[in-house]
């Protein structure tokens, strides 16, 4: 059905030209990655002019990876990123489920006003309020800590909104049946609402982890010690330092190391990944 | 006597009901409390702080109320004016091409086939990559003389430009990087939107004798209007809040040609230690964001009602 | 029986070792913020330097933290001080010390010098006199010179020979520089395939090179004794700016737009420019990577030979606890000793601020093998401190923004310096009003 609809929608507008154009554009899109791959394995040949070549006319070497690995503690940076994303997600799941339940199933004075208040937060991302947030983090004694990086994200209006939608679509009968069985409200949440909202939870988790994994400016402001750097900050520091040494092969290798986990995850869970981005987007 | 007998339990039950309601309200608030604590600490209270800081001036030890002085200062500051104008150019320059490309990609790759899945994945890959990682790669691509662009342009006999060193070109280079990064993301939304178009609409159009272009114009595009609106909102928010690439590639230069409002805030706060001006500029950014959200909320409300 | 005794003895020994090790674990932990302002393996070299320090000083555990460029290091340090977690030591661009002192971000090191049994004068006498200006403020020692540089003219010997120039006679005046650059620039139709000369114009570097040109033009960038005056709108700077502009527009031997430091050295090493004026700090990098013979020379002069000294000093921020301060001092004196000073100089190309370094055999041998490392030292008699004022970075950026605009063809040299002077004066006004313009009212 979709195939037929797609054909009707687009297939007749000179399909050959369209496909060729898209293939060319996609190739263009892939060029930066191609260069990264080719340069990462290229043996260190200064002289610069050969560095830009997309053609692997050399014997591949792992020297760049070794040097990148030794110049920056990527394992530690990766661990920090994992801790940050995991910590944020764990707390987010809690706060958003509780709040969503209140918005979805409870009636209380000021509900609409509070809901709109929540919604505005979706636009006011912490980095825009970087000046006061930095001060707050320092005052709480969280400067240069991973917790300081995570704290502003613990509440999520976006997640609350998603969960509320998911909860609202769960039929009341289930809740009523459980109530009849004598369930308390938190048992309702744990055993009925959350399990049934799992697709939305997973979708949100993927979006949340991806966006915090890629976060740069806020952690850069909060973190000072190299030990606490997440992968993005570590990579930027590494690039800017290696840029001095003009070691583009090493930079390419280092970038590859940083990108690899997400790409691996993407390739493995491709459909889930794309679906989650699409469904969470459609508000 | 029987009246009192009847009334008392009724009164008692009404009181108990009200008590139960208050108890339920408290419980609702308790559920919202964790979120509200963090939201207040890191969103609402900072907004108040920023507003306060924007009308005060910190001078060594003393803090004094200065009214509109900071706002006047940023309006007089050529760096801020540049940043503001740049943000507008950047918005138009990234949103329009990204939209067109994303729509084009979605239309072309809508059908499910192995080739299409591969192409879609390649186009989506830049979205997964942190902006700093992309900027590192593009730092080399833009390198004058030996970088990727100049290298292949030289092969074609065309002289390269100083991609991020020439004030006339630098913003365009940043725009190019942003479009590359985000088009795949918006493509996904369009793909989802396309799937929502009912087959019947097309069949009706065919029965009416519409050709392919007319079907595109009269069926597909109108049906995608809400998706387009949504993508524009997301893109606008990104335009205001994403400055990682500026940080790595140009630091707002050369000559403020790639300065953006949020980067200006960073410069004023972290490099110039001028909290007053930084806060005033933040307020400007907040107003823009709130305007975007107000428009998008009212629109979705209208749709929900329709 | 003896079996069990042996076991117990072994266990006791093991326990003793562990206890001993954990006692050593109570080493003072200090952080050193350091920048990498030039090309080269500086981050790696710093890591190995600190590693050696830690191994030879078990009571201290120093962690090197790479903090970007000079400007970024300043920002990071101030942010850390504000958040109450200052690093114990920072390698800070030498010309930031005035600003840091005015803002109270660094403390004098006099007490530490006295505690180590010497006086300020004796301590500073081990460093080249030209470096004292940026390190001793108000007769107090605020920083210890770590590495210093002057700009040098690097040139490609092969290109010189090819263009009919004598590699033993590098250009010594601006006129000679233009002549040489014109002969060296190669074109393929309208496209330039090889530039005659390139100079960096990104933040921090651009201002430094411009200073060298202005001083070579007889000028003075700023008031050395008072941090509230800079001299942008002056004939000497107008001459320097016009000269740089002419290289781009009139003689067409220099590319337009902002050139970043790594881009310039990259171009030189890949043969796309025949000459470049960059820091001596990149000398080792160029030496290791150049696949052609090259030489270095003084910066060409117009009125006189004069350049500004770049480089950095080690400082101790305020708010560091006494334990860490003492540990930092141990690190500082170790790093600036003749041996380590010399080692760092050989590894990078910076010249060693500690004069004693040049007396050591390792250094003498190195200089004999690499005469190009001597040029920077030879230029020292003509070198003066780099500009240091209130809000140094902002004042410096005032002229750098205009420089970049001019090099991109957006402003004339005169417009640029007038605008820069205006901006700089505006930035300096609060300080000036509190000092020079604070007059008695009765």
What is shown here, in short?
The complex is a heterotrimer of chains A (283), B (306) and C (442). With 283 residues, chain A is mainly α.
Structure description:
With about 280 residues, chain A is an all-alpha fold. Chain A has one domain: Orthogonal Bundle (MetI-like fold), CATH 1.10.3720. Chain A has helices at about 1-10, 15-40, 65-70, 75-105, 110-120, 130-140, 145-150, 155-170, 170-180, 185-195, 200-215, 215-220, 230-245, 250-270, 270-280. In chain A, helix 4 (about 75-105) packs across helix 8 (about 155-170) and helix 4 runs antiparallel to helix 13 (about 230-245). The longest helix of chain A has about 30 residues, at about 75-105. Chain A is globular. Mean pLDDT of chain A is about 80; it is low at about 10-15. In chain B, helix 10 (about 225-240) packs antiparallel against helix 13 and helix 12 packs antiparallel against helix 13. Chain C is of the alpha/beta class and about 450 residues long. Chain C is about 50% helix and about 15% strand. In chain C, strand 8 (about 185-190) and strand 9 form a beta hairpin. In chain C, helix 18 packs antiparallel against helix 19 (about 415-435). The termini of chain C are far apart. Mean pLDDT of chain C is about 85; it is low at about 20-25. Chains in contact: A-B, A-C, B-C. Chains A and B meet through helix 1, helix 2, helix 4, helix 5 and helix 6 of A and helix 1, helix 3, helix 4, helix 5 and helix 6 of B.
């Amino acid at each position: 059905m979709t195939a037929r609809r797609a054909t009707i929608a687009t297939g007749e507008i000179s399909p050959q030209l369209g496909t060729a154009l898209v293939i060319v554009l996609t190739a263009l899109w892939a060029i930066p990655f191609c260069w990264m791959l080719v340069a990462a394995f290229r043996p260190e040949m200064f002289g610069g002019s050969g560095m830009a070549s997309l053609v692997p006319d050399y014997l591949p070497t792992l020297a760049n990876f070794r040097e990148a690995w030794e110049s920056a503690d990527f394992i530690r940076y990766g661990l920090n990123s994992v801790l940050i994303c995991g910590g944020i997600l764990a707390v987010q799941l809690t706060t958003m489920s509780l709040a969503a339940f209140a918005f979805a199933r409870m009636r209380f004075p000021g509900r609409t006003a509070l809901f709109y208040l929540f919604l505005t937060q979706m636009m006011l991302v912490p980095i825009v309020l970087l000046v006061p947030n930095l001060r707050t983090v320092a005052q709480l004694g969280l400067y240069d800590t991973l917790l300081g990086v995570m704290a502003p994200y613990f509440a999520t209006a976006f997640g609350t909104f998603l969960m509320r939608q998911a909860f609202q679509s769960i039929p009341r009968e289930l809740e009523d049946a459980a109530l009849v069985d004598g369930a308390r409200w938190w048992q309702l949440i744990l055993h009925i609402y959350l399990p049934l909202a799992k697709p939305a939870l997973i979708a949100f988790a993927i979006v949340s982890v991806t966006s915090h994994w890629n976060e740069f400016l806020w952690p850069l402001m909060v973190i000072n010690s190299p030990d606490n750097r997440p992968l993005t900050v570590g990579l930027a520091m590494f690039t800017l330092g290696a840029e001095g040494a003009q070691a583009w092969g090493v930079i390419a290798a280092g970038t590859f190391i940083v990108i690899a986990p997400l790409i691996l995850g993407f390739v493995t869970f491709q459909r889930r990944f794309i679906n989650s981005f699409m469904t969470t987007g459609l508000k | 006597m029987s009246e009192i007998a009847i009334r008392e339990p009724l009164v008692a039950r009404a009181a108990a009901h009200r008590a139960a309601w208050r108890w339920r309200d408290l419980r609702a608030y308790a559920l919202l409390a964790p979120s509200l604590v963090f939201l207040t600490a890191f969103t609402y209270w900072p907004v108040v702080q920023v507003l306060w800081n924007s009308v005060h001036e910190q001078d060594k030890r003393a803090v004094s109320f200065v009214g509109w002085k900071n706002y006047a200062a940023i309006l007089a500051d050529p760096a801020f004016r540049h940043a503001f104008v740049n943000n507008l150019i950047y918005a138009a320059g990234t949103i329009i091409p990204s939209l067109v490309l994303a729509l084009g990609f979605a239309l072309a790759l809508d059908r499910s086939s192995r080739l299409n899945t591969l192409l879609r994945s390649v186009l989506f890959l830049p979205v997964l990559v942190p902006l700093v990682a992309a900027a590192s790669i593009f730092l080399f691509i833009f390198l004058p003389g030996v970088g990727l662009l100049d290298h292949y342009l030289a092969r074609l006999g065309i002289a390269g430009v100083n991609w991020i060193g020439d004030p006339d070109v630098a913003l365009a280079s940043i725009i190019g990087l942003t479009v590359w990064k985000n088009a795949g993301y918006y493509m996904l939304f369009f793909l989802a939107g396309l799937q929502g178009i009912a087959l019947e609409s097309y069949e009706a159009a065919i029965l009416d004798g519409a050709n392919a272009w007319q079907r595109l114009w009269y069926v597909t595009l109108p049906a995608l209007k809400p998706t387009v609106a949504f993508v524009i909102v997301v893109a606008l928010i990104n335009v205001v809040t994403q400055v990682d690439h500026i940080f790595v590639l140009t630091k707002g230069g050369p000559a403020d040609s790639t300065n953006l409002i949020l980067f200006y805030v960073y410069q004023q706060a972290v490099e110039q230690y001028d909290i007053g001006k930084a806060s005033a500029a933040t307020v400007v950014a907040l107003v823009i964001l709130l305007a975007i959200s107000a428009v998008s909320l009212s629109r979705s409300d209208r749709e929900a009602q329709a | 029986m003896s079996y069990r005794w042996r076991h117990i003895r072994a266990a006791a020994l093991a326990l003793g070792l562990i206890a001993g090790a954990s006692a050593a674990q109570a080493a003072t932990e200090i952080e050193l913020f350091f920048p990498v302002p030039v090309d080269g393996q500086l981050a790696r070299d710093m890591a190995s330097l600190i590693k050696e320090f830690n191994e030879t000083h078990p009571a201290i555990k120093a962690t090197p933290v790479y903090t970007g460029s000079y400007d970024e290091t300043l920002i990071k340090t101030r942010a850390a001080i504000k958040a109450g977690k200052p690093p114990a030591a920072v390698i800070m661009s030498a010309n930031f010390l005035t600003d840091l002192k005015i803002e109270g971000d660094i403390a004098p090191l006099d007490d530490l010098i006295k505690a180590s049994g010497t006086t300020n004068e004796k301590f500073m006498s081990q460093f080249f006199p030209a470096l004292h200006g940026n390190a001793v403020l108000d007769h107090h020692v605020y920083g210890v010179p770590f590495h210093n540089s002057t700009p040098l003219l690097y040139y490609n010997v092969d290109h010189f020979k090819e263009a009919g120039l004598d590699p033993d006679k590098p250009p010594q005046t601006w006129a000679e520089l233009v002549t040489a650059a014109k002969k060296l620039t190669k074109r393929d139709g309208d496209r330039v395939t090889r530039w005659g000369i390139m100079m960096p114009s990104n933040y921090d570097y651009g201002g430094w090179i411009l200073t060298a040109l202005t001083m070579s033009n007889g000028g003075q960038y700023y008031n050395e004794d008072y941090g509230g005056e800079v001299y942008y709108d002056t004939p000497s700077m107008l001459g320097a700016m016009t000269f740089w502009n002419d290289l781009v527009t009139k003689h067409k031997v220099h590319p337009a737009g902002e050139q970043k430091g790594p881009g310039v050295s990259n171009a030189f090493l890949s043969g796309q420019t025949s000459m470049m004026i960059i820091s001596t700090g990149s000398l080792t990098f160029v030496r290791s990577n150049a696949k052609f013979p090259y030489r270095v020379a003084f910066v060409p002069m117009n009125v006189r030979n004069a350049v500004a000294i770049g480089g950095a000093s080690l400082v101790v921020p305020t708010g560091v606890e006494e334990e860490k301060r003492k540990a930092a001092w141990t690190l500082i004196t170790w790093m600036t000793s003749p041996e380590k000073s010399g080692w760092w100089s050989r590894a990078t190309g910076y010249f060693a601020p500690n004069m004693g370094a040049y007396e050591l055999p390792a250094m003498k041998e190195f200089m004999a093998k690499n005469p190009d490392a001597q040029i920077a030292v030879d230029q020292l008699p003509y070198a003066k401190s780099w500009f240091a004022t209130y809000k140094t970075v902002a004042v410096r950026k005032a002229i750098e923004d205009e420089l970049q605009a001019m090099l991109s063809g957006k402003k004339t040299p005169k417009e640029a310096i007038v605008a820069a002077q205006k901006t700089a004066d505006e930035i300096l006004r609060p300080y000036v009003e509190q000092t020079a313009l604070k007059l008695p009212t009765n």
